[in-house]
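A student in our group prepared the protein record below, which I am reviewing. This is what I was given:
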Amino acid sequence: MRKSLTSFFSLEQLQALVLVVDRGSFSAAADMLGISQPAVSQQVRELERRLGTRLLERVGRKVAPTPAGGALLGHARSILELARQASDAVRAHDDGIQGSVRLGTGATACLHLLPPVLRHVRAHYPAVQVLVTTGNTEDFVRRVEQNTLDFALVTLPVSSRALSVVPVLEDPYVLIGPPGAPRLPKAVAPRALSALPLILFEPGANTRTLVDAWLLAGGVKLRPTMELGSIEAIKEMVAEGLGYSIIPRMALPTGSAARFQVRALQPPLARELGLIMRQDKPVTRAMGVVAEAIVQGRRP
């Protein structure tokens, strides 16, 4: 007699396995699931017991899949996605639009662009749940490709044939300086920054790559006095008179003129934000309304 499917594993066990691998630890997976670390460990141990093989091993400080775990991982992702689609398909027969949408975004867009968008979605589609994760473009490209995110709002360009891209908005960069410092010209060229203490975003991020390229095109190669991983932290350092920075205009809400000198760059520099998703991914109605709200939200 063939075994029942439930004698092999449960969706909760597969989800625990996938999250432990994606996040690199049991504790990080537990935080994502909102349960205790021992509960996650128990789910994985029971999955290993039912399948009769070890699925995870510790590599340095991180947890990684064994060969057997790696073989299961792709199937686990597919099973979880199919289960989510099945649930959304059933809910679609209700009068309203329901379902969950997994969205990745940078911290700046999360703070300054998404709040009114999410407020709109909640007001018009209260049964749609948007699960927002913050991070960087490189990580989000990988996670959208792996289907652990439905789509992500990232800084373009991205290099992946598996993804489709919908441009959302162009966000100009500006120079900010301490309010009490000597007055800056209305537009600032790269060479005007050569003698200023610059506080820049940490290397490797798309924002830093764009700024470095703008400086080099103007014949300037600077060594910043600080390199930080948060635009909000950079703003606080500048406000305290510790230096100057080049940041996206989006990060300066109304009223920022009282805290900073804000100047345009010459020549202008801007980043383009876009929504990325897998080309082969079915778009649920919940995904559609969230994507439309983000694209329409770019307009005043």
Q: What stands out?
A: Residues 171-272 form a domain with the D-Maltodextrin-Binding Protein; domain 2 fold (CATH 3.40.190.10).
